[in-house]
Specification:
Elements: E1 4-6, E2 13-15, H1 33-60
Antiparallel strand pairs: 1-2
The structure holds zinc ion (ZN).
The site of zinc ion has 8 residues, from loops.
Length: 63
Amino acid sequence: MADQVKCLYCGANVPADSSHCPGCGAVSHFQRKGYRAGARRRFLVWLLLLTIFSIFMAFWLPR
Ligand SMILES: [Zn+2]
């Protein structure tokens, strides 16, 4: 059974894997699960790089 989400604009039930609401035609905000996961992973990588860079600069720069 496919997951259903409510359209943000008209409240109609939309299949989670549908790209557009069948009721009002608005773009669904729930379909890009892979994109969200990828964005979060990219954010964590950036956070890790920033942390390493900050530690490196803290030790490298003269105090
Ligand atoms: Zn809608």
